[in-house]
Design a protein that fits this description.
Elements: H1 2-27, H2 55-58, H3 61-64, H4 73-76, H5 87-93, H6 95-107, H7 109-112, H8 114-126, H9 134-149, H10 173-176, H11 195-199, H12 208-212, E1 215-217, E2 240-242, H13 247-252, H14 256-259, H15 262-266, H16 275-278, H17 283-287, E3 291-293, H18 298-307, E4 315-318, E5 325-331, E6 337-340, E7 347-348, H19 357-360, H20 369-373, E8 379-381, E9 383-395, E10 400-409, E11 412-414, E12 419-422, E13 428-433, E14 437-443, E15 446-452, E16 455-457, H21 469-473, H22 476-479, E17 484-489, E18 492-497, H23 536-544, H24 546-549, H25 563-571
Parallel strand pairs: 9-14
Antiparallel strand pairs: 1-2, 3-4, 4-5, 5-6, 6-7, 8-11, 9-10, 12-13, 13-16, 14-15, 17-18
Helix pairs in contact: 5-6, 8-9
Amino acid sequence: MRISSLYKLLAIVSTFLIFVFVFKQLEKPRVVRSSPDQCMSCHSSYQSIDNSHPVELFGCASCHGGNQLATTKESAHVAMVKNPSRLEHADKYCGSCHSDIIHRIKMSPMENQRGIKHVLQEQWVEKSTGLDNKEFAEELANSHFAKACASCHINQDEDIFHDKSLAKGGGCANCHRVEEKEEGKHTKFTTRIPSKTCLKCHNRSNRIGTSYFGKFESEGYGTPYKKGEFTNKLDSTRFYYELPADVHHEKAGLDCIDCHTEIGVMGDGRKNIHMEDAVDIKCTDCHDAKFKTMLPDTLAEKLLTLNGTMPMPESIAYSERKNAPIYNLQKNEEDEVKFYRKRDGKAFDLTKMSDKPYHNSSIHERLDCSACHTQWMASCYGCHEVYFENGKQYDWVKKEMTDGKWMEFRSFLRFESPSLGIGYNEKIMPFAPGCQVIGTVFKDKEIEQFHAMAMAGWDPHTTGKARTCVDCHIDPASLGLGRGNLKIEKDKVSFSPFYNSSKSGMDFDYPIDAFVSLEGKQFQTTSREKARSFNKEELNRVIEAYKCILCHREYDDKIYEDFEKSKLLFDEGKTSCLK
């Protein structure tokens, strides 16, 4: 009887304990297994970053790491990477699909900034005047790079920017992220990159980004002054004047990506030093395009699919230099050519380069398109760089405040009549300061001064209607002489400059805006082996054209249809000229 009662008691207690255990288990929040990883049980509101990365297949952990089987936030986030597109993580998390692109990006000038370093080394250390101590010159060049240049590169740490509107970097996200992020949603990625993304970096140095949109940086104030405030702001300390924008923006609203190719922007895998080594697009790639059957070009097909705004064509254009697919320039079966804006797929009829004499004549065979079609060029003559050895400034490489401080002052900003010279491509093209540095170094009680005067040629991205013959052949600034009075009396040519460098306190006697003298003496250096000013023979040949231009000012004048024949008739006295 006692044993029976004990069994009954044990049964009651066991039943009670089982009931308590079950009740406690039911009280716990239920964890529902999610697919493809456990992360989605908490992040179910997060949608795919784009169509090519469906969250239903990729989940979260395949890109971000962490523990995909964990059921708590703490354990799930162990070893998780917030931004796997940073280049130090990309090999691991993106490399299985994008290894080629990651390799190319790491090699590109936009990441390693090799071009900036090369120019600083050449101009400040090897060619500067006044810095006799080359070790100190290199120290200054490295300091200037770290404190004035190094904030702009693809993999910069975005968190170090106090002003988030100026933040740059983040790896692949630097360019491909859609900035307008919804609360509680994952960042979106896109290949339809807006121009404002490019302008985060491309608004200094040669200023092609701001120039394209018709913005010329002013001397330091905003006009017009409205409602008690400065206007026309580039940022909190920089302002601009409004000038004619590039015709591609003005007439078609084209973004940077509409012209620049995937290979030209993301790199071709080579150790390109300068921008022109990396860029592959030329004007003729569109305006005198060469079309090829697209398939089986998987890259072009992939880019078209990712873009999703334009048709899948039979034929597309390819760049001549690197054979990059220009997939938004298409030809259909009826041989109709259309150019599509990548942002929204809007179609445009393309203007084909004419075969008029001014394009085909041998007298213009050395001209780069930019020589004639540049409307204006941002030219910052005399950049005064002041270095305080006892100061402190943020170092973008070390990511901390370090000894030494730089301040920059402007001198002689101009935009009209850019100089012409022989560019890196051995073509005649526009030149501007690149860069002209007049330096002052404060070392305790000592003051050192130096200057590194250089000119550089590039396409200013202010394309428009061609300049007149007079603009190039008789304007002294365009010839590289600087601004002043050019006199031509019979066969005698003389020039009187406006700018007097010696009276302005400069340590050189040529005008600050002069690239060359009438005698063909080049005043300023370049940082490209083939780039130079006109020599004396070339200057004389350009100026001599005034004899024809005085009367024959239009490009379609019949004398230019066969200029060699016209000259021969002139020399034989068989024309009505000078009668």
